[in-house]
Amino acid sequence: MKGYDMYLGYVILYIADVLETVRFYEKAFGLSCRFIHESNAYAEMETGQTALAFVDETMLSHSFRKNRVKEEPAGIEVSLVTDNVNQRYDHAIKSGALEVLRPETKPWGQIVSYVRDNNGCLVEICSPMGTSL
Asked: Can you spell out the DSSP letters for 61-126?
C-alpha cells in the first residue's frame, strides 16, 4: 500500500466450521464471500481494504483458546461500520446473532452495539467515528 511500510491486511478468526461461518456472516451481516479455498479450510469476506478471513481451527499448529458460544468471548472484536446501526443490529439478531449490547450513543457521538456470532466471537456494529446518526 502506497505510503505505508506496514498496514492491516487481514483479520483472521480461527473457527470450527468455515463454511457455516461464511453463511452466517452473509445472512446476519450482509457480507459477501470473496474467496473460499477448495479445502473449505479458509475463506475471506468482502469488507473493503482489510479482509475478514476465517480459518479452520485445526490448521493452527500451536495451542490457543477456541471460540465457543458457551464460553466467554475472547478479548478481541470484529467491528463492522454502517450508517444503519439499529437496522443492522436488529437484522443480525433475527439472523441468529446473540445480543450483547443494544445500540447506544457514546459520549463522542458514535452509535455502538455488540453481538456474538455463531462461534461466540464479539462483533461490534457501529456508526463511523466522528458522526452522530
From this structure: -S--PPP-TTSPPPS-EEEEE-S-HHHHHHHHHHTTPEEEEEEEE-TTS-EEEEEE-TTS-EEEEE
Name the residue ranges covered by the structural domains of the chain.
Answer: 10-59+73-126
Distance CA 33, CA 22 (A): 7
Given the C-alpha cell 467491528, which residue does it identify?
79
| Measured distance CA(124)–CA(48) in Å, rounded | 16
CATH code of 10-59+73-126, in short, is 3.10.180.10
85-124 tens-digit pLDDT: 999 999 999 999 999 999 999 999 999 999 999 999 999 9
Phi, psi of 103 (to 5 degrees): -55, 135
Q: How far apart are CA 125 and CA 122, in angstroms?
A: 10
Quote the DSSP letter at residue 57.
G
